[in-house]
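Late entry, written up from scratch paper. The run itself happened at the end of the previous shift, but nothing got recorded in the book at the time, so transcribing now.
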Amino acid sequence: MVRPAEQSSFVPSALTNIEDSGLTTLWIQDLALKIIYFGGYLNGFQVAERIALPFTGIVDQILENLKREKFVEIRSQMGGLGEGAYQYAITGAGILRAREALERSQYAGPAPVPIEAYNQAILRQSRGRTTVTQRVMRQALSGLVLSRKTFHQIGPAVNSGTSMFLYGPPGNGKTTIARAIGNMRGSTTMYIPYSLYVDGQVVKLYDSVNHQLASDDETTESGTGSLRSGSRRDPRWVRIRRPFIVVGGELTMAGLDFVFDDTNKYYEAAFQMKANGGIFLIDDFGRQQVRPRDLLNRWIVPLENRIDYLTLHTGRKIEIPFDVLVIFSTNLPPKDLVDEAFLRRLRHKIEIGDPTYEEFREIFKAVAKTKRVQYSDQGLAYLLQEWYIKPNRKLRASHPRDICDQIIDISRYLNIEPAMSKEMLNRAAEAYFVDL
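Output as recorded:
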């Protein structure tokens, strides 16, 4: 069993008034005007849905203020009773004010959460140390064939909760191992806000590409939940599965800080900030546009102090909790990347090597069974002799999957059952392997 360190459960508190939001009335008014400016005719409940704030106590007050100042007007009452059914339209004066607000920032989405509230939430949802046992390891890695040495190195690395350095030839499952680690580290869900409010600036945090919504009786498919009176939590927060963020050769130093959009005039959160509470996998380490030494220098303070410092374009540095398991994965020899001093800062170094012949056979049998390819020991012996031993080709853990896929493609074309015959194996290998 995975036993996370004792921690406070966190559910965003319900909002009853504007003060609870941590935002000023003027700021919320500008956001509401931008939403109506872009959305056209919207009723009160629709404005509340898009601004991610409860209608009763907050959005109704904002719309009343905008109406009093003649920035919006009521066009009609749609189906339903109450003020929330009133349909609002922006006036000429409202358009001018909305455009002034848009010059400062084009952001027109869910209301942000103050950075202080986010920091407290991350600390309360911190995974802390976890205890992974051998039984949990066997369950999580049941789909992988690993050497005994590698298997027993992964467990202590997971329990450390700090950093991990996976290295070895390509195609042997480093990324798959990293994903399995993500599934074995404690509870699976957490809350994050859609966006953050930092010194009058908006930082967009929720990312539909990298964050996966979790099932929640308060969370709709759009993730905003019920925003009318009676909402049981702050709708500016969304419940997600613990993040697993992967970056590769495209990673730059700029991506590890607040990224300011000069056109839209708001920020995108850094990769490691999006990964808070989960795992940040730096794949293909050493192939980034920045030097490995510079990249590792960037991680020294966060890895040691569990605190990160991100910079606004004004120059102000913002302190952010760093509750991330960082995994560096590389196909390059460690000696070509960094020196011994830097490797010492990476807590656990694990080599994911090529499989042995017996491990390769075990992988092939499992893959063939899954893909419904007729397995044959004689066929595998032929494949190994002709396509590995004779050309002195290295075994890779990914080859059985890829060769079986080739066999399936060919068998469909020939309209025959997929099997490990000599003819099928030769055709599959000819299509798959390239002499370098």
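Residues 163-351 form a domain with the Rossmann fold fold (CATH 3.40.50.300).
(Scratch paper discarded after transcription.)
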